[in-house]
Amino acid sequence: MSAAPSDFVRGETAPARPAPVTVTGPVGWLRTRLFDTPGNILLTFICAALAWLVLEPAVRFLFVDAVWEGRDRGACLADVAGHPVGACWPFVTAKLGQFIYGFYPEAQRWRVDVVFLLGALLLVPLLIPRLPGKAFNAALFFAAFPVVAFFLLYGGGLQSFAVSWSASAPAALAGSLAEAGQRLGGAGEGSLVVAAAAAALGWLGAAVAWLASPLFWLREVIRQSGEPLWLDVAATAAGLSLVALWLGGVRALAKVLAAFAGLALVIVVLGLDRGGLPVVSTREWGGLLVTLVVSVTGIVASMPVGMALALGRRSDIPLIRILSVAFIEFWRGVPLITVLFFATYMLPLFLPGNFTMDGLVRVLVGIALFAGAYNAEVIRGGLQAIPRGQGEAAAALGLSYWTTTRLVVMPQALRHVIPGLVNSFIALFKDTTLVLIVSIFDLLGQLRAAFSDPTWATPTTLFTGFAFTGAIYFVFCFGMSRYSLFVERRLNVHRRR
After folding, report:
1. Each residue of 95-106: pLDDT tens digit?
2. 196 has which bridge partners?
3. Phi then psi dihedrals of residue 379, to 5 deg
4. Residue 242 is inside which H or E element, if any?
5. Which of 37, 39, 394, 446 could join 399 via S-S bond, C-beta 3.0 to 4.6 A?
6. Predicted local confidence at residue 42, as pLDDT
7. 156 φ, ψ to 5°?
8. Chain Cα centroid distance, residue 438
9. Following DSSP, what letter does each residue of 300-348 receive, concatenated?
């Protein structure tokens, strides 16, 4: 018995279908991204019109009608040029040194160039994942480079080293205790309790001095030698070498000796044992130099502060948790301008009378603590995203709390919050312009100072200067943004193929 043909079975050849719409190449990209629906077509034309209205005048001002050569304001005036005048780029050319170095002495500006070059040579290999030697490179950038940069930018030399510095602390403490005891005894004459307290302070100061007497003796021996700096460095190297050999073995000893060999090379090259380079006060720094110093120092210093505060806020110890919460909420509750004013004008009032701190250093400390409080909350969000099972699995393997945090929890938390951290870094980089409030001239401050020069007073000078500095800020911020996207894609493990 034969089966009857079904109604749904085609009895003839199907007609040829049209070729598929192009979805690759420039035409396909335009079709799928900009002109795929009537609504998107309308939005495309609206955005194109708005972009034309904004970009056409900007391009005409910055390039087409711009003045590229000239020695003074006369070249940038409309009645002299005979046509509409755009950007006055000779103004930027004439003030470029001021924008980069500030009031740094012209004969010493090579030192700033060397710092920029060293920073780039050490930072670029850190940003390229496939290059080897990351640990050594990081040690150079985060430990050695700041020291070298300080002596290059500020100048000066070294008179002593760690042994003398270590002896100064207990000496100052013993002297402070003895002085406090004497003042207390003089203020409370006739009182047995006050006399006992004054005597206790005096005895405590004497005990501190007695315990540190070997260190005082070694410091005197070093001072009386012909080469006190080199003897101090040698004594420090010997002490740290013994500690490294005892705790870490031969490998740790080799690292300590290599570090001190590099230190000796820096001392010789910069002449730190002979007074070093001429001192350039931070009041003479300015421009892009100050912007990079403040932003890089704030970014680098705020990260360990933020991680410590984030861990402290999640601690099971009530005192640590309360102090961390109080610190974070205090610094997040005041504006950065207030922090800068406090660090510049009020912080010296809380320091001992014989202790001074440079104005730029006070600003760096305030910015680092301020940014650290914000980074703490960003990092805490990443810590909360880590499942509890991660820590439990590490504990089951016998790992300690700090090992678990360092190798398991914190790397994953930081990977989760890369966008938030980079957003904080970009905001901090732009907020460096607020240091002008406390008379520190960064890039924007030097620009505003350059506007006061009557030689370049034209109607377009103001817009030219702001366009130039805006381009510099955009390049740095956009570079940080794009690199963060690259790091996100590289660390996005679940999308790897």
Report:
1. 999 999 999 999
2. none
3. -70, -35
4. helix 228-270
5. 394
6. 93
7. 85, 175
8. 20
9. HHHHHHHHHHHHHHT-SSHHHHHHHHHHHHHHHTS-HHHHHHIIIIIGG
What is 93-105+285-495's CATH topology?
MetI-like fold (1.10.3720)
Q: Binning pLDDT at 50, 70 and 90, where does residue 423 land?
A: very high
pLDDT for 238-293, tens place per residue? 988 998 889 888 888 898 889 889 999 999 998 988 888 999 999 999 999 999 99
Nearest to 480 by CA among 412, 400, 424: 424
C-alpha gyration radius of the chain: 32
Cβ atoms within 10 Å of 164's Cβ, excluding its own: 20
Instruction: Give the Å distances, CA to CA, from 201 to 179, 197, 321.
Output: 9, 6, 33
- Asked whether 287 and 465 are in contact (CB, 8 A), the reply is no
Q: Which of 30, 12, 10 is nearest to 22 (CA)?
A: 30
Question: In whole angstroms, what is the distance from residue 115 CA to residue 111 CA?
Answer: 6
Amino acid at residue number 309: L
The residues, ordered by sequence, that sit 6+ positions from 344 with a Cβ below 8 Å of its Cβ are 359, 362, 363, 366, 438
The pTM for the full model equals 0.86
Write the CB contacts of 391 (distance below 8 Å, at least 6 apart in sequence).
404, 408, 409
Task: Tell how many helices (H) and how many strands (E) occur in the chain.
Answer: 21, 0
* SS3 state at 287: strand
